[in-house]
Design brief:
The strands form two sheets. The chain has a seven-stranded mixed sheet. Helix content is 34%, strand content 25%. The protein is of the alpha+beta class. α1 runs antiparallel to α3 (51-59) and α1 packs across α7 (99-107).
């Protein structure tokens, strides 16, 4: 299940980055078309701004999981989000001996079910300004509204903004985020 969620995360990240909320045709992410008939992984591999995420999903062995029926909600960090990590972090995480840590981080970006941005906003309002999202990894992400944007706070207090929302896939939805979220 963790592998599926991680793969979904990678694909979702790629799919959401360039989508606009009100586009009437298939959205683009990083200039690449995203198709609602394809899976998270099938779309992600075509995104030029999610190369790091795709490599991480492959290294984590999560491709099959994220190609499964799901549905998944993936908060997909862009290449720029991964570049914010300390130097050498990504290179270390994709090594075989770091697979467990990589899987923990990737599955922390995946929530079971297909949750649109409108549904997230309703959950936040219903929760008095906060919504706890149980990740596939097992820990919670906290969603809030900040300046009209949906912000996610991770277990360590780090925050990410959804920069592109509602990139729908055949097996879920991707929301592109500007920062890699970290579990405990």
């Amino acid at each position: 299940m963790k592998k599926s969620f991680l793969a979904t995360l990678a694909v979702a990240t790629l799919a959401i980055t360039s989508l606009t909320a009100h586009a009437q045709k298939d959205p683009e992410v990083g200039g690449a078309a995203m198709y609602p008939t394809k899976t998270i992984v099938e779309n992600a591999v075509n995104s030029p701004i999610h190369k790091t995420l795709v490599a991480a999903v492959k290294a984590g062995g999560l491709v099959d999981t994220l190609n499964s029926p799901g549905p998944f909600t993936v908060f997909a960090p862009t290449d720029d989000a991964f570049a914010k990590l300390p130097a050498g972090t990504v290179d270390t995480l994709v090594k075989p001996e770091s697979k467990d840590t990589l899987d923990k981080i990737l599955t922390y970006h995946v929530v079971a079910g297909k949750i649109s941005s409108k549904e997230l906003e309703k959950m936040i309002k219903k929760g008095g300004g906060k919504a706890a999202l149980k990740t596939v990894q097992g820990e919670d992400l906290t969603a809030t509204l900040s300046g009209g944007n949906i912000m996610l706070t991770d277990a360590k207090g780090g925050t990410a903004i959804i920069t592109t929302a509602d990139v729908f896939q055949s097996n879920g939805v991707i929301h592109v985020v500007d920062t890699v979220l970290m579990p405990n």
